[in-house]
Amino acid sequence: MTARYHEIARRYTPPFIKVRFKRRRNGKVALAPAHACLLREEMLVPRPDTIEGLAYYLHECAHFWLRHFTDGEAMSQKMRDLYTGGATDSLAKQEYEAEQWTIATLRREGVAVPDRVLKDM
After folding, report:
1. Which residues are within 8 A (CB) of 37 and not within 5 positions of it... i.e. 6 or more apart?
2. Is the pLDDT of residue 91 over 80?
3. Position 106 pLDDT exceeds 90
4. Among 21, 33, 59, 113, which residue has the fewest nearby CB atoms (within 10 Å)?
């Protein structure tokens, strides 16, 4: 499954965005917090080795694909053109939209979304 999860993550990784993976602490990786940052043109995510890790990874990708950033968060015109202009009126709504995009993407890819993942969202 891990290779499949990595391939799905690769397909949805936003162009020109650096991916930083969270480090292990005491043999474990804390899934949260993860983040998407247009200003630094990066996302900090767990490796998509498990369904939970893939869900967190895709959630941060969603913020880029849904254009959840304002013009002021982009350092270049290219980044403004790609990732700004879709920000909704509240952070809560953006998080909800990213969760819905993640669930839809997993299902579109044929990945069953376990209840434990849905509850975590």
Report:
1. 43, 44
2. yes
3. yes
4. 33
Q: Are 34 and 45 in contact (CB under 8 A)?
A: yes
37 has pLDDT over 90: yes
Do 85 and 66 contact (CB within 8 A), yes or no?
A: no
Q: Which of 43, 51, 49 is nearest to 24 (CA)?
A: 49
- On whether the CB atoms of residues 102 and 58 are closer than 8 A, the answer is yes
What the block records as the tokens of 70 is: 């304002």
Task: Indicate if the pLDDT at residue 27 is higher than 80.
Answer: no
pLDDT at 23 (0 to 100): 81
DSSP 8-state class, residue 22: P
